[in-house]
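Fold sample X.
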Amino acid sequence: AIMGGGTIDLRQADCEGDSMVIDVFAIWGGIEIRVPLHWQVNIHGTPILGGMENNTTRDALVQTSDASRLPKQLIIKSSVIMGGLEVKN
C-alpha cells in the first residue's frame, strides 16, 4: 500500500501446511489483516514513523479433532514507513 490502504481478509482461509508467510509493505498508508480465531500470528519487521499492532486473540476453547481447525501460524514480514499495519480476528 502506497499512500492508501487495504484489507486482507483471511477469516475463511486455510493452508495446507502448519504455517504461511505474508510480505507486507506500507508507505504513507495502512494495511489491515483479519485472521481466524485459531491462528497464531507473528509479526517481524521494523516500523519507521509508523506502527504495527497484533490485536488478535487466540480462541482457547478451540479444541477439536478436525484437522482444518488445528492452530496455524501466520508469519508476517513487514516494512511500514509512516503508515500502519493491524492484524485482528
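Fold sample Y, listed below.
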Amino acid sequence: MRNPFLFLFGLVTILLGFVFLFDNTLGFNMLRLLWPIGLILAGIVLLVQRNKQPAAFSSSLVVSKQNNAFISDVNRKGHWIVENEAFSAFISDLTLDLREADIPKGETVYQISGFIGDVNVKVPEDVAVMVSSSAFISDINVMGSSETGFFGPVTLKSDDYELAAKQIRIEASHFIGDITVKASSYASIDSIQEKSPKLLA
C-alpha cells in the first residue's frame, strides 16, 4: 500500500514514541490503557460498518452478493461473471481482475467499506471506470490519473465514462483507502458462454 498506509505507519510510530516517553519519564504505563481503548474503537467501527450503509453508497442499488469479513484477502481472476457486489471488512486486500470476466453492458457497481482497504482492479481497455471514495485518507489512481484526499470524498473517472457501453463504478468508504484501477491492452469478451459454454453448464 502506498502513501496513506505510510502515513498510518508514521502516526502509529509517533504514538508509540509518546507511550514510551510517558512510561520512562512519569512511570505511567499508557500501553495498558491504549490496548483496551484500541480494541473498543475497532469493535465500534466494525459494528457501524456492518449496520450502517455509508452515505456515499447508492441507496437504491440492488446488490447481488454481500461479502462480510473481519480481515479479508480476495483475489478474483480468470473467467467469472461480473455483477453488483458489496465487500465489507475491517481490514481488506481486494484484487479484482476483470480482463477475462463476463462484464454486462451498462453500469455495474462495487460497494466496498471498512477501516483500512487496499483495492486493486484491472479492466479491459473498452471498459470505463468511476471511483468514488469517502475516507479520512484516500489515495486513488484511475488509468494513470491520481488524487489524494483528506477528510472528504474524492471522485475520479474515465473520460468517456458516460458514453461507454460497459461501466464499472466503485463506491468506497474507508478510514484509510488505497484504490488503483489499471486498464489492459485488450478488449473484454462479450460473454463467457460464447467463449466457452462449458463454463456455465
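Sample Y note: Residues 49-55, 191-201 have pLDDT under 50 and may be disordered.
Also: Residues 3-25 form the longest helix (23 residues).
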